[in-house]
Q: What sequence folds into this?
């Protein structure tokens, strides 16, 4: 029992009554000011509580108001506490949710002594008025019974102790660290079965699509719901030079979309080719098809630049559009070891393009020139220097990114971060600036590599912001500064990794000193990541990082670093403290712009494959009027096979819900369960509750109509309609109705069947209620209604 208690305290516990994490309100609260920095109320909810308080206080004279006002306001404001779910017993499926927050014993005794007759006023809008009137009349004169009703026995979480408990309030809502200082994250798998995914980008066009490039030469389009379009955005497999070798650095290496892609409709690619047995890197432009917004016109290729590669390694491979609209190209030093080309190597030679960052203009051109040179490029006019060069002295920059800037202040906007792969000892992270010399081959990280060049007083090199030795990793993969909405604690954190060691790392700038603080990133423990869709393991070889249109971060990795092995996976990074702290409601909601699709959609399934469903009966004991009542319950489980390790089979039992199940592809949409108990066909109007954790008394409402299961919109849906649902399932009533998909959002494969449902509460099914026609609605799955039955 001691071990179980420790794990629970170590897991993320703050939670609101909508079963979501607390947040920092966008506007300060006026009434429940204890929770103005962090809690479960926005200004609208705060005003609602304030109105209720004013209504109650109309029953008091000045003396009574002074005596009882503080008790009433404190009790009402516990809906705003970051621990509201615990105070109201909403976390425990085996107990009915409280109508008022749980109080500490001493506080309850004081409340009883000073203001016990106000209890009925607090309960006036909580349901059956006569029932609560009888209750308060029975307990108001008996302090023991009064506090049996209000007291929460857990002295750490009851009010007001929960406000002052040092353990609960230490680092509340902040990013989590383990005992070694390692920042804990969880992951969500969003795509798999990829062959060395080298890049993932977005179009910044409101569609929230992302485009994933494989080293082999394919680029695929994924929609915001995770589905992949069955035909490639681009297929250059016949032109791309690569092989099956493990670790081959040649291939399709990067893609970038024009910053005005919606109007210019052009894409730029970086790939390896063989021309008359000579290896080259090629930068080309493609135009979007006139007939398909999710496919490039393969006949439209316009070659922009080719550079001969003297060796098969150090090909670089990054394309970026800067905020200035110019295209930046990051090219490796030509390969082999130690940049052995010429007196000083390619990287220090400004007459060569190898080992450089280039900047070109691909907009202001004519038919005779593939690109032009920006007039402010640093070496324009310098004798012997290539005018394309923006920065030099780089070895093999692998994955660069541009900082979006702080969402509030814009600080950091436009900074260019790169990971530069080292030689024998050090890997480094650089901030790229115009005209900068990054030291290779004179230096590797902060250390000298070629001592003669290193001592040259004219080197004037720019040092990295960070380097690390090969005991931590041997091939850096540059990342991104987090600027998304969902995880405010990570704002400003630069997250990167290492291809060889699989290590995830982070840097945070000290704005006062300009120094960067290092923290390793590790996977959260099982309890930390024990939430729907989250995992805490990944494939080791980290190939690339990515940012979606909303600014959320991902990384791409593989279990077999070969261009032909289908073991590549894309993971979304999730800060587990976001499970204790979220952005304010509505702030991070997105509505992807519809995309016209030609072809089929391939739906995403996590790596574990579905084996089968099993219906399990079990018994539970419930105490009713002091006597044990034996209940026979049923739950459906799925058994899954983990295919992560090809040589082993691991079966796992997990509660089955239609939200989390991997339905076999041959099952038609929403039509997987047409028969009920004993094989009888389900009657139209049957309902079920779908929850991520398998709780039988709460979840998203789904209804069975015309042979398929579908969802119900929350428009006009009240507790009366919820009670109709709960009674069908054997419960007495609906304790509450949860709107805006608070209990789970269905996948796009599930149809919305009912909208504008209005019930009197006595109907036998939702089909008997006033409603719109089946299948007719004006809502999305973001408005799926849920209920909690009791």
A:
């Amino acid at each position: 029992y001691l071990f179980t208690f420790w794990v629970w305290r170590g897991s993320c516990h703050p939670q609101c009554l909508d079963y979501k994490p607390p947040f920092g309100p966008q506007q300060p609260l006026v009434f429940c000011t204890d929770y103005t920095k962090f809690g479960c109320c926005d200004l609208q909810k705060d005003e609602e509580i304030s109105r209720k308080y004013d209504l109650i206080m109309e029953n008091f004279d000045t003396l009574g108001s002074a005596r009882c006002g503080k008790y009433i306001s404190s009790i009402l404001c516990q809906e705003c506490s970051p621990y509201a779910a615990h105070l109201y017993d909403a976390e425990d499926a085996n107990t009915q949710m409280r109508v008022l927050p749980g109080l500490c014993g001493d506080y309850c005794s004081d409340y009883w002594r000073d203001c016990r007759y106000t209890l009925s006023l607090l309960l006036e809008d909580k349901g059956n008025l006569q029932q609560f009137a009888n209750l308060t009349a029975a307990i108001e004169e008996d302090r023991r019974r009064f506090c049996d009703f209000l007291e929460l026995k857990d002295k750490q979480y009851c009010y007001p102790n929960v406000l002052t408990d040092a353990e609960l309030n230490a680092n509340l809502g902040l990013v989590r660290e383990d005992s070694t200082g390692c920042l804990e994250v969880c992951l969500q798998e969003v795509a798999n079965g990829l062959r060395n995914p080298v890049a993932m980008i977005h179009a910044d066009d409101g569609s929230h699509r992302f485009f994933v490039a494989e080293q082999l030469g394919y680029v695929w389009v994924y929609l915001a719901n995770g589905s992949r379009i069955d035909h490639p955005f681009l297929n250059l497999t016949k032109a791309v030079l690569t092989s099956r070798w493990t670790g081959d650095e040649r291939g399709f290496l990067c893609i970038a979309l024009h910053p005005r892609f919606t109007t210019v409709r052009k894409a730029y690619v970086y790939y390896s080719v063989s021309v008359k047995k000579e290896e080259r890197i090629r930068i080309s432009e493609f135009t979007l098809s006139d007939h398909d917004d999710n496919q490039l016109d393969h006949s439209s290729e316009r070659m922009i630049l080719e550079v001969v590669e003297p060796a098969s390694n150090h090909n670089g491979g990054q394309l970026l559009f800067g905020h200035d609209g110019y295209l930046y190209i990051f090219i490796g030093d030509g390969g082999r070891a130690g940049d052995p080309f010429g007196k000083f190597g390619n990287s220090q030679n400004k007459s060569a393009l190898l080992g450089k960052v280039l900047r070109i203009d691909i907009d202001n051109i004519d038919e005779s020139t593939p690109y032009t040179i920006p007039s402010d490029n640093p070496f324009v006019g310098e004798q012997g220097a290539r005018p394309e060069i923006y920065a030099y002295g780089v070895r093999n920059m692998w994955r660069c990114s541009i900082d979006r800037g702080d969402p509030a202040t814009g600080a950091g906007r436009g900074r260019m971060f790169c990971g530069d792969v080292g030689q024998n000892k050090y890997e480094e992270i650089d901030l790229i600036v115009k005209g900068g010399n990054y030291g290779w081959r004179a230096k590797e990280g902060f250390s000298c590599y070629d001592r003669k060049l290193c001592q040259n007083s004219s080197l004037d090199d720019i040092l990295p912001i960070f380097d690390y030795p090969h005991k931590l990793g041997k091939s850096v993969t540059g990342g991104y500064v987090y600027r998304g909405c969902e995880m405010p604690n990570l704002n400003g954190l630069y997250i990167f990794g290492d291809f060889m060691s699989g290590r995830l790392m982070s840097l945070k700038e000290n704005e006062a000193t300009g120094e960067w603080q290092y923290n390793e990133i590790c996977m959260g423990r099982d309890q930390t990541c024990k939430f729907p869709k989250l995992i805490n393991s990944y494939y080791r070889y980290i190939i690339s990082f990515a940012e979606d249109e909303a600014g959320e971060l991902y990384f791409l990795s593989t279990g077999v670093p070969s261009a032909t092995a289908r073991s590549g996976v894309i993971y979304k990074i999730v800060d587990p403290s976001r499970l204790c702290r979220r952005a304010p409601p509505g702030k991070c909601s997105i509505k992807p712009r519809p995309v016209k699709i030609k072809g089929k959609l391939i739906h995403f399934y996590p790596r574990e494959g579905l084996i089968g469903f099993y219906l399990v009966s079990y018994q539970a004991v419930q105490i009713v009027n002091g006597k044990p009542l034996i209940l026979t319950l049923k739950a459906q489980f799925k058994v899954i096979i983990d295919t992560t390790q090809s040589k082993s089979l691991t079966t796992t039992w997990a509660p089955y819900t239609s939200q989390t199940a991997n339905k076999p592809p041959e099952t038609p949409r929403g039509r997987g369960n047409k028969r009920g108990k004993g094989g009888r066909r389900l009657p139209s109007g049957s309902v079920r509750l779908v929850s991520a954790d398998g709780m039988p008394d709460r979840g998203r409402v789904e209804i069975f109509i015309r042979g398929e299961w579908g969802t119900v919109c929350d428009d006009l849906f009240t507790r009366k309609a919820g009670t109709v649902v709960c009674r069908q399932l054997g419960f007495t009533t609906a304790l509450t109705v949860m709107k805006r998909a608070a209990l789970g959002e269905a996948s796009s494969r599930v149809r919305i069947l009912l909208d504008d449902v209005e019930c009197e509460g006595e109907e036998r099914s939702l089909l008997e209620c006033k409603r719109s026609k089946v299948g007719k609605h004006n809502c999305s799955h973001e408005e799926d209604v849920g209920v909690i039955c009791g």
Observations:
- The two ends are 29 Å apart (CA to CA).
- The first strand starts at residue 183 and ends at 194.
- Confidence is low (pLDDT under 50) at residues 1-12, 608-619, 634-675.
- The chain is about 15% helix and 30% strand.
